[in-house]
């Protein structure tokens, strides 16, 4: 799914929400939730679209209707130690794309 596809699906109301996945090294990937599945956004050449920051995400999605968006990040302590007995889930924080901060 490209950014153009995301805009079209969002205008149709088919996108339920977005996830900005934070990876090691300052890399962010955008995933769209629709039709019971999650799709990672691709650039025009078919490679995974890399987002530089939340500000960059706001710029990319300025044409998209308001959607819930979550920043998803693994908890560093859990990754380093890995000694929890219960399942390890990522940290999920809401991001408001129509507000600068």
What is the count of distinct domains?
1
Helix content: 10-25%
Q: How many β strands by DSSP?
A: 6
Q: Terminal Cα separation, in Å?
A: 28 Å
Mean pLDDT: 85
Estimate the strand proportion.
25-35%
Give the low-pLDDT segments.
none
- Name the helix and strand elements from N-terminus to C-terminus, one letter apiece: HEEEEHEHE
Radius of gyration: 14 Å
Shape: globular
Question: Keywords, please?
Answer:
3 helices, 22% helix, 101 residues, six-stranded mixed beta sheet
Give me a quick take on this structure.
The protein has one domain. The protein is 22% helix and 33% strand. The chain is built from 3 helices and 6 strands.
Polypeptide structure, described:
The structure is a single chain. The protein has 101 residues and is α+β, with helices and mostly antiparallel strands. It has one domain. Strands 1, 2, 3, 4, 5 and 6 form a six-stranded mixed beta sheet that branches. Strand 1 and strand 2 form a beta hairpin. The model has no long low-confidence stretch (mean pLDDT 85).
